[in-house]
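Below is how a single chain appears once it has passed through the pipeline. First comes the sequence as given, then the structure the pipeline wrote out for it. We keep one example in the README because the format questions we get most often are answered faster by looking than by reading.
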Amino acid sequence: MSTLGIENIEHTNGTTAMTVSDGGVVTFNNPPGLKTSFVSVYAQGTSGYVTGSTGDFLPLSAVYQHKGTGNADYNTSTYKYTAPVNGIYQINLSLIVQSTSISTHYELNVDGTNQFVFAWSTGSRVSMGSTSFYLNAGQVVGFRNGNNAGYYRHSASLPSNDHYTVGSYCLLQEVT
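Resulting structure:
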C-alpha cells in the first residue's frame, strides 16, 4: 500500500485545484465566476390535503434552503425555477396524496412544454420523481398538475416532520 502525503493539488499554472483535509475530505476550488444554484422549496398553507387543477403548477410556495443564486432563481408566486446558466441540473419532487385509490401525476414542464410524467402515484400515497436534466440559461422549469392531482401542505415552516410536499433544483455542473 502506498501513501501520498499531500494537502493541495495544484494546476500547472500554480493555482490550487483541490485540497484534501486531514480527515480525507476533498474540496474543489471552483474557478472565479462559476455559478452555484440550489433551492429547496415546499408547499406551505393551511394544513391538509389540496386538490389542484389540471395544468396548474404545483404551488411550492416557500423556500427552505438556498445557496448561490438559488433563492433568486425560484419564483414563489409562479412556482417555477429559472436556470441561471447552461448546465446539468438535478430536479427532485416528493409528495403524498390523500388516498391509495387516487391516481395522480405531475409533469416536468420546461418553457411551457410538458417533457414527461415526472411523479406518478397509483395504489400508493407516495409520489416521487428525480432526474438530471440539461437546461439552457433562462429556461423555466416547474411541476405541472397532470390530472387534478392532489398534494398535502402544512402551515408550519421547515424544518418540520409534517411536510410531505417538497421539491428541489440544483445546478450540478455548468456547461460552457
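The chain has one domain: 33-174.

See the next section for the split statistics.
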